[in-house]
Amino acid sequence: MFTGIIQAVGEVGALEHRGVDVRLRVRTGKLDLETVAIGDSIATSGVCLTAVELPGDGFVADVSGETLACTTIGNLAVGDRVNLEKALTPVTPLGGHLVSGHVDGIGEVLSRREDGRSVRFRMRAPDALARYIAAKGSVCVDGISLTVNAVEGAEFELNIVPHTLVETTMGEFQPGRPFNLEVDIIARYLERLLLGGQADPGTGVSMDLLQRCGFAGGAEQA
User: Fold this and answer.
1) What is the radius of gyration, based on Cα positions, of the chain?
2) Which residues share a beta bridge with 183?
3) pTM of the complete model
4) Domain spanning 8-86, CATH class
5) Is 81 in contact with 168 (CB distance < 8 Å)?
6) For 67, phi and psi rounded to 5 degrees?
7) pLDDT over threshold 60, residue 221
8) How do residues 177-191 score in pLDDT, each as one tens digit?
């Protein structure tokens, strides 16, 4: 598990294609690797990867075909910058929100505009994930825990402060850029818990379902 608070920005050092898989080498910059061991997890632009080698200036991870198909890792090139976060421990401050590092889908940056010293982004989520995104709720964009400012259908807005622009890759985001999106883990599990075997998860949570599960009262009788 992770918090979505980026600890360093690293750089892709090498990409070695091995059939349908890729061996990825990441230079980790200022990320402290002293406590990292082979087998540990490191979130790389929101994707949970397992360190299989620790060459000293970073880590090496094997990326499966499934991960390449479901995330933006397959689009990376040598020299590209990536957001990095080590897995949380029992004493890690939870400054963001609970993040699994399991990407739900790939979104797209629609627009960017300056707003004082901050930048406002309009993003598009895959339609199937839109129901998990709520105003003032949390989303994880390329591994960054962010607060949603507004939602309209599958589109949502983010206000990014100067610190985040400097300390993550968000400062490089431009319209048309794809990003790894992980929605709030609590929203996903709550829907699954409520639905159980009663309906297709794609139908979402309705007021009728909430009433049948005891989470909302029925309409008052006149």
Assistant:
1) 19
2) 139
3) 0.85
4) mainly beta
5) no
6) -65, -40
7) no
8) 999 999 998 888 888
Task: Count other C-beta atoms under 10 Å from residue 192's C-beta.
Answer: 10
Residue 222 CB burial class (10 angstroms; 0-12, 13-18, ≥19):
exposed
Q: Which of 113, 89, 92, 106 is nearest to 45 (CA)?
A: 106
Q: Please give the Cα distance from 92 to 89 (Å, whole number).
A: 5
For residue 67, the tally of other CB atoms under 10 A from its CB is 20
CA atoms of 65 and 20, how far apart (whole Å): 5
Domain map (residue ranges) of the chain:
8-86
CA distance 105 to 133: 13
Structure tokens belonging to residue 26: 């990441």
- What is the rounded CA–CA span in Å between residue 40 and residue 165? 27
The tens digit of pLDDT for each residue in 136-145 reads 999 999 999 9
Q: How far apart are CA 131 and CA 173, in angstroms?
A: 24
